[in-house]
Specification:
This protein has 211 residues and is α/β, with parallel strands linked by helices. 30% of the residues lie in helices and 20% in strands. It has eight helices and eight strands. Helix 2 links the parallel strand 2 and strand 3. The protein is globular.
């Protein structure tokens, strides 16, 4: 069975606490938190204050996706705020060793993400350090984009050389394509608008969790 990580980028921010409580009650596994700085990606989302404010309302795993430059400057504050998984982008300027040591020393999980145009083989030197690889199936920075099916080949490649690592996919995933995503080797699925925009969130999460 997959782990489902609804992205709060698609949630109603006027009632964010209620939105998170809803997906928690309905059986989602992670809260996917997209942090954007307006430099690495052409958008700005939210930061540490939001994570701190929602951490006290749920015990769910906080899956924090740092779409930012120089994440080593901020990794400690995101860990202090309650993040359980830290994802950095291979394309970002960063002090990787500092980030790795900061995350591992706290007993948290380290993940690395790759954009659609990045060769999947670039992540191979890092695999032994990582708990998870996040494959972007859209260009990072905005929600609601169309799924890129060619990204399934990246998941298939990583799974062929590592049978145990978590492979996460993010972007344009819904009940219409989840079967293909899981078949490729993905076991952690990020879903934003397909969950928070559903007429029946509980039913939708249950449908996702059948895979």
């Amino acid at each position: 069975m997959i782990k489902l990580a609804p992205s709060i980028l698609a949630a109603d921010f006027a009632k964010l606490g209620d939105e998170i409580a809803k997906i928690d009650k309905c059986g989602a596994d992670y809260v996917h938190i997209d942090v954007m700085d307006g430099h690495f990606v052409p958008n700005i989302s939210f930061g540490v204050c939001v994570i701190e404010s929602i951490r006290k309302y749920t015990d769910m795993v906080f899956d924090t996706h740092l779409m930012i430059e120089n994440p080593e400057k901020y990794v400690d504050v995101f860990l202090n705020a309650g993040s359980d998984i830290i994802t950095v982008h291979i394309e970002a300027n960063m002090d990787y060793e500092y980030i790795k040591n900061a995350v591992k020393s706290r007993g948290k999980k380290l993940s690395m993400s790759i954009k659609p145009n990045t060769d999947v083989k670039e992540i191979l030197p890092y695999l032994d350090d990582l708990d998870m690889v996040l494959i972007m199936s859209v260009e990072p920075g905005f929600g609601g984009q169309k799924f890129m099916p060619d990204m399934l080949k990246k998941a298939e490649y990583i799974r062929s050389i590592n049978k145990t690592i978590d492979i996460q996919m993010d972007g344009g995933i819904g009940l219409n394509n989840i079967a293909d995503v899981v078949k490729s080797g993905v076991n952690v699925v990020v879903a934003g608008s397909s969950v928070f925009g559903a007429d029946d969130v509980e039913k939708t999460i249950c449908e996702f969790k059948k895979y």
